[in-house]
Amino acid sequence: MALRRRELLIGFAGAGGLALTACSQERKPPPPPPEPAVIGFDPPPDAHDVAARAPAKVTITNGTVRSVEWIDETGRPLPGGPAPDHRTWISSEPLGYGHTYTAKVVAHGETGDITATATCTTVQPDRLVDVSLRSSNLNEIAENDTYGTGFVLVAHFDEPIDRAAAEPHLKVTTVPAVTGAWYWLDDQNAHWRPEHYHPPGTKVTAAAEFFGVDLGDGAFGERDQRITVNIGPAHLAIADDDTKQIEVFDNDVLVRTMPTSMGRGGTAVIGDRVLSFWTRPGVYTVLDRKDPVIMDSATYGLPTTSGLGYRTSINKAVRISHDGIYVHELAETVWAQGNTDVSHGCLNISPDDAAWFYDFVIPGDIVEVRNTGGDPLDIWQNGDWTIPWPDWLRGSART
Fold this sequence. Notes:
Elements: H1 2-23, E1 38-42, E2 47-50, E3 57-61, E4 63-71, E5 80-82, E6 88-91, E7 100-109, E8 112-122, E9 127-129, E10 131-134, E11 146-147, E12 153-157, H2 163-166, E13 170-175, E14 180-184, E15 189-194, E16 203-209, E17 214-216, E18 219-221, E19 224-231, E20 235-240, E21 245-250, E22 253-259, E23 267-270, E24 273-276, E25 282-285, E26 288-290, E27 293-296, E28 311-314, E29 317-319, E30 326-329, E31 347-349, H3 351-360, E32 366-370, H4 389-393
Parallel strand pairs: 2-8, 9-18, 11-19, 20-32, 30-31
Antiparallel strand pairs: 1-3, 3-6, 4-7, 5-6, 7-8, 10-12, 12-15, 13-16, 14-15, 16-19, 17-18, 20-21, 21-22, 23-24, 25-32, 26-29, 27-28, 29-30
């Protein structure tokens, strides 16, 4: 009987072992079916009025790119190439204005090759608007030009535009960094300056990124621009009508004192205009230099036949305003320089001083006129720095 019981126990154990072995053999699920590659287009198929600045892009899911053809209406292929993993393709140039594109893409996936096609059209502007980047003298700036510490950047559009749409695409960076802002004179002209004069040695980089930008009323930006200029030493001339002297500083060091005769003051009514003979107080900058320059009072409304007018050739003339104020030589008024104001508004100095000053200054150098009569210098006359900083900030399109 004992043997019989032992056999039964062994039998039960063997049966249990067989049962456990059977349960541990799980059935594997069948492998998933192969997934075809999926082709995505950006811009999407049948898109219209696509931004000109946008690139063309292809994205492959569950596969890789074999070939991409992105052809415009003339048959020209849009250049581009795949990413290293061959799961995307992107054009190396933007789509541009007024194009109709046909795209054909072949992708390879687990089920083999698939092909997809798409078309799209890009925005067609009514007109293109360009912007020129200038200094205060309204001449276009050139790469690596050097200006004085009063340099003001001017963006001039060749027709009126939407200021709020344009300003985010006007970008200025400086090394070292300074706080600066744009001030709009009107819908075609914006000026940029820092809160304080530029530190000597600053690099100013201006970027006008307008290609593809909607500027309102059917107008779009024509191109992108980027240019860097340098800020030279700190040249400052302070003309004080109380002393009738111009003190000239080079990096805070007084290097010359020049007697001057400024605007005689008062006004005259010529026709329907009131002309002022004050040298307006304010902060000017050097616009340009000419040797000689023909000064003609008729250009600002004072005829030579009026008895007050003139037309004459002047040597060593440094222009500081858009309405004809110069620092220039005039031997005939040396007797008055340092004691009496006799000019129509210019700052007369001696021939020796004028020759030195002419050689010393560059565009953007600062000329501060103090203690004279008349209205303060206006921005249209070259009075950007005369505007208080809080008022300047209010001139931004973003305020």
